[in-house]
Amino acid sequence: MKLSIATGLVLALASTSIDAFAPSNTFSSPQLTALFAEEKKNSFLPQIDAKAAASLVAASVFAFSTVGVTATLPGFVEPAYAAKVEKVVQKKLTKEEKEFQKAKSNVDLAKSTLESYQKLNTDAKTADKKAKTALTIASKNEATAKKAYTTVADKLSSAKKQKMPESAVKELSADAASLKSVLNEKEKILSSASKTAESTSKQVASTEKGIKESQKAIKKVSKNFKKAEKTYSKYQKKVNKQLKAQQTKLKKIQGKASQLKSAKERETKELKATEKALEAESKALEAMKAK
């Protein structure tokens, strides 16, 4: 008995790009966030999970591989403060200046954190969409493989009950074994695709939570910044007022110094004139005495 249909199903299922459903190698942790170092010092910031970011990349790669498309993943943004900064000697800051700069730095950091989460969220949604598409395809392939295997398995069971020729039973057994192998592979792929879709779905929720927390953090540090800015503005006005007073005082002192210098020059000039007159009178008296 020739079962060309069953044999054809084995070949068709085996050639449905089983390898295309195998997860490709995942990338190592992306250059995501130099926020890790900062977040320990700034409790107001929501923390970014490095493992979650890496799993997001892996999920995106898996989703791409299951539909036979080459993955082109968007690169993660590395915040500006992650770059090396050369050590520079800074002037000694006042308390007001320190508080102002600290508040401003916190605002910038919170905004940068929000931007990172927004980027992650966009990537998470993209990966989640692809993972769900891959899950749908894997589910359909698994259902097709199960149907094909069940059909042949039923025929094999029927052939045994009807005590059909041994050659027919043997051929059906071989087809059933092949289809069972294909089904097992499809089930593994479906299980993996299901876990990936579940993971990407959680990442979408996680990054959305991070965005909300970042927005709350921005409101909080912005309030502190306005307060520090107001204090610093008052401090600057006070310093400018004192500076203006010092400049006025300095001009007065310079004016008096100039007057004293002029008076001293006049006195010196008068003394020299008197000295010359006395010398002339002394010479005249000596001349009269000589006569």
Tell me about this structure.
The protein has 291 residues and is mostly helical. The protein is built from five helices and no strands. It has one domain. The chain has helices at 4-14, 35-39, 50-66, 95-161, 166-290. Residues 1-38 and 57-83 have low confidence and may be disordered.
Summary, kept brief:
This protein is 77% helix and 0% strand. With 291 residues, the chain is an all-alpha fold. It is rod-shaped and about 175 Å long.
- What value does the Rg take, in angstroms? 44 Å
**What fraction of the residues are assigned to beta strands by DSSP?**
under 5%
> What share of residues is helical?
over 70%
Characterize the main sheet.
none
DSSP helix count? Answer: 5
Intertermini distance: 172 Å
Could you outline the blueprint of secondary structure elements for this entry?
Elements: H1 4-14, H2 35-39, H3 50-66, H4 95-161, H5 166-290
Helix pairs in contact: 1-4, 1-5, 3-4, 3-5, 4-5
Features:
291 residues; mainly alpha; 5 helices; 0% strand
